[in-house]
Amino acid sequence: QPVPQNDYYARYDIDKHPENGGISPRFTRKFTPNPASPSGDNTERQFLRVLQKVYQTIEKNEMRLEDQDRKDAIRNEWQQLALVIDRLLLFLFIVFTTGITLALILPGYYAHMREIA
Description:
This protein is mainly α. It is 73% helix and 0% strand.
């Protein structure tokens, strides 16, 4: 079913595929060149070119920040896993060291106690 021309969304349907390099027509409509000024069109083009470069820089920065956040989240998960494994290995080390120490000391202690008794 066709959308009536006076519909709110029909006016901004052209924003889906802007022809001026990605700048929304809603934004560029505000900057119309002055007909009395011959350099107005050139100034607007330069301004839009700079604006497009700023937009691309912001997009690249956002992508870089998202990538950095993803890497930081993965790094934090690995650090948490390493902390758990480190504590587990410390616990096993203490248990085995204590067990081996007792296994070496107790037979001599019991043999010495038998000799005394």
